[in-house]
């Protein structure tokens, strides 16, 4: 079996794609997998580290503001179509699978034109442009949220959830290891703050400015990922408190999740899927800087189901620490959030998607 997979630009597109690739290899050990990505994007680094071959296309996204860069978009698109046509002709995939992002549009559209069965994963509660364009001609649309019939043909939809990493799914065994890893001490409750690999400036500012609160609460242990863009926060007073563990990037997110009583983070689709699988109560701060404002829609979906608390980015300075203080003392509320978000979790999403792709190939 040969499978072409495309998706990238963000971890929310890349890591589910890798999880599905791993599941395919688990089910079909001699499966050959080839990734298609966008040159210069993070998938060109992350996919080889995961053990898979990737070919980059010169595709770029459209700038939403007037920009001379948009002049080159049609030429890059044509060049990408020509390159991916040769890749498909040489690789001869049995099925093509896309998770969104710049490269998935030409990769899957060309596969459709060349008669290859295709399927897509829509991670968010509001679809991106690439998936909207591809949906009419794919065989399957895997989704993580209910109610997407308003965007995709109902008969093509399969509710799977978002594929998450194996280490996240099995973290319940890691609590004692996590306490040693983070030098947890005798804390009563643990807060986990993170905003992705680059960081979330609004969340980071709130943590930095809450130094007096964390000083007054030595019973609360804080794990704080600043992200690459905000690494300077590692030198602030909050980061140096004895009950705070600040780092640019958390290499062992499984361990961080395992001891977190409350998570404060953005509302990307992959993050929400991980929170659901590990049943962690959360305060979600949607990023206002994403296409179609899909993080706000993701967070609202969970809040409406009493599965998370949402604080809008503009309200963080006034509300975030107050919300955290109320929640961290309310075990009944934390347990209710945990139970409700757990209902959204789907541990076997990667296997379910892989099994459907295999059926498509056999059909």
Describe it for me?
The chain is an alpha/beta fold and 363 residues long. The protein has two domains: 2-164 and 347-362, Rossmann fold (3-Layer(aba) Sandwich), CATH 3.40.50; 167-342, Glycogen Phosphorylase B (Rossmann fold), CATH 3.40.50.2000. Helices cover 42% and strands 16% of the residues. The chain has helices at residues 11-27, 43-49, 73-91, 104-113, 129-134, 166-169, 175-181, 201-209, 211-216, 253-259, 269-278, 294-304, 316-328, 331-342, 349-362, and strands at residues 2-6, 32-38, 53-57, 95-98, 118-122, 140-143, 157-159, 189-193, 220-225, 244-247, 262-265, 282-284, 309-310. The strands form two sheets. It has a seven-stranded parallel sheet, with helices on both faces. The chain has a six-stranded parallel sheet with strand order 10-9-8-11-12-13, with helices on both faces. Helix 2 (43-49) links the parallel strand 2 and strand 3. Helix 1 crosses helix 15. The longest helix has 19 residues, at 73-91. It is elongated and about 65 Å long.
CATH topology of the largest domain: Rossmann fold
pLDDT < 50 runs, ≥5 residues: none
Q: Report the order of strands and helices.
A: EHEHEHEHEHEEHHEHHEEHEHEHEHHH
Name the beta content range: 15-25%
Whole-number tally of structural domains: 2
Please give the share of residues in helix: 40-55%
The CATH class label of the largest domain is: Alpha Beta
Mean pLDDT: 91
Shape annotation:
elongated
Class of secondary structure makeup: alpha/beta
Please count the beta strands (DSSP E, at least 2 residues each): 13
Alpha-carbon distance between the two ends: 13 Å
